[in-house]
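Changelog entry: the Methyltransferase type 11 domain-containing protein record was regenerated in this release. Current contents:
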Amino acid sequence: MTMNERKEAEKEQFNTLAAVWSNSEEAIGQAEKVVAALGIQSGQSLMDVASGSGVILHALKKRQIAPRRYLAMDISPGMLEELRRSFPEAETDCADFESPLAYHPGFDHVLIYNSIPHFSNLDMLFANAQRSLLPGGTFVIAHSRTRQGLKEHHQRIGYISEREPIPANEELSRLAAQYAFDQVVTSDDEFFYFSCRSRR
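Regenerated structure tokens:
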């Protein structure tokens, strides 16, 4: 299966799941922890890549954080439709962040939450994050599970990834340096969290 075929299959799968996708209290609670680690404050801007049906927006609302601008990006129009049911005012972009043109300049934060296993072109992720961030902006890759927890989850559901579900710290650090990021922070205790700051 080619990368484009895989992307189309995943898009259809997420479109099918969108109507029954649940932003449970547990899921929102976990997203709140990531929002806290991200350090976003009211008045800042956030690009939520692979946003799904809006769990990060629910977490922002629960923490009473009002971004100056919020953009939800996802390859699944069904997921974005579900997000707009709860947040009709949300700005959305149905796009693939692995595409060279899938970036929007001027953000304080770019977040990829709970979806890094579905991406394969990590160079493009870092390039688009850099293009989307203001100088000193933060790029974050986070997952509600640890590396080991995610591997075990994938084994249980029979999901096969073409690489490690969460890239190694060394690879993430190398990409950060290559694409003009610094202040790399990685944590893999309660959940996985990687962040870096744009030097441009």
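The chain has seven helices and seven strands.
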